[in-house]
Every structure is written in C-alpha cells, then in structure tokens.
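Deliverable D5.2: sample structural annotation.
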Amino acid sequence: MLSRKEKIGLLVHTCARINEFLDALKKLMSFLEYGTPDGRAKTATRAADRDVKAAVLRDVDRLTYREIGEVLDVPRPKDLEIKGDYPRVRQMVIRGRKILVLALGEDGWRRQIEAMKAEAKRWNSLSDVEQAVESWVEYGLPYEEALRMATRDHKRRKN
C-alpha cells in the first residue's frame, strides 16, 4: 500500500501526463481539421495560437511590440534602427484580435480583457505560498494538503 505522500505524487504525475495527452489530442484535432494532405498544418493554423498570444500580451498585459517580439521569439526587423517598428509583431496582434473578436464578439473580447486583467492583478497580489497553493489545488490536491506542502517548501527555500 502506498503512503499518502506517494499517492499525492502519483496523482500529480498522473495529472501531468493527462495534460500532456490533452495537449497532444488538441494538436491532433487541429491537424485533422486544418491539416493538408502532405502532413503539414496550414500556415495560418500554425500561426493562430501565436497571434492570439500576441493579442493577449498587447491588450491584457500592455506589452510593446518589441516586448511581445522578445516573449514570442520573433526575430528583430533588419531595419529596426531606421524605422523603429515591429511590423511583423503588429500584424500578429491584428490577426490575433480578429480571431478573438470572431470567437467572442467585440464586447466579449473587451469583457475578457478586463476579466484577465483583474485575474492577473489578483494573482500578483498573492504571496508565493498562496500562488503555490492555488497551483497545487488546480491539480486536484485538497486545499489543506496544498497549503501544508507550499508552506513546507517555502520554509525550505528560505533556509
């Protein structure tokens, strides 16, 4: 019979593998829906996820085009010193917004932006222990156990 700690570890690793499976399934579903006969995804499909991330980084996190390019690992434009612009990132943001507005509607996207800003503000107001507890609880760990583990880990890191 497994100890409580071993059971928790098994549960956490099981959840991680389920998440990996769900990510792979999502990629498979996307390919089946938007793939091409030669086995590659259409360019727009591959870029859609990154475009949406760019729109979120711009509209929710208020990052500059340069900062978004750094986060998403977009090469700097060769004429940056001359023009001072990131046209590729700007276009990514525009395409991402279009996708989000099509999915949520103009008002829905605005409400989502505000909700995401509020959640980011709430998350950033939490202590390291509180953030760790919330992360553990998302994996299905009971709150009390997550609090005990997060507190123990925090004390261990301080020493």
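Annotation notes: Residues 70 and 123 are 23 Å apart (CA to CA). The mean pLDDT is 86.
The annotation will be released with the project's public dataset once the embargo ends.
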